[in-house]
Write a structure and sequence with these properties.
Elements: E1 16-18, E2 21-23, H1 25-32, H2 40-52, H3 63-75, E3 77-79, H4 80-87, H5 91-103, E4 107-112, E5 115-120
Antiparallel strand pairs: 1-2, 3-5, 4-5
Bound molecules: zinc ion.
Zinc ion binds near residues 3, 5, 6, 23 and 27.
């Protein structure tokens, strides 16, 4: 059996059912709890919490978020594909981290030609 989203092979005890389709755990989590990249309320609360805590830049981030942020800081701009190769996590995991970093107004995406780059806010 294969995951309906990523095509990964599913073992019987690792299969998650959602609306009649079969998913692996990661895809199930992604589908049932997608990162909300453009949620203005989430942005407002994430930035105000960070302000309350006196955090700016990479302060208060997880190791993975710091790694992503500092790579973007060093390079100025980077594609998701390049980042994925460097940080070595699943695309879903990276998307979730982007959503958080965007909420905190640390990074943003922009398009140049046919490529989407990530850069500092
Ligand atoms: Zn999957």
């Amino acid at each position: 059996m294969q995951c309906d989203r990523c095509g990964g092979i599913l073992r019987e005890n690792e299969t998650y059912d959602y609306h009649g389709k079969q998913f692996c755990e990661d895809c199930y989590m992604y589908i049932t709890n997608p990162p909300k990249a453009c949620d203005p309320m989430a942005v407002a609360s994430a930035t105000s919490i960070r302000k309350e805590l006196g955090q700016s830049g990479a302060a208060g981030l997880t190791e993975l978020q710091k790694q992503i942020y500092s790579l973007i800081e060093q390079r100025g701009k980077i594609t998701k594909e390049e980042l994925l190769k460097i940080v070595n996590v699943k695309p879903e995991e990276l998307e979730a981290q982007f959503a958080i970093l965007r909420h905190c107004e640390l990074i943003r995406a922009f398009k140049e030609g046919s490529k989407v780059y990530l850069t500092q806010w």
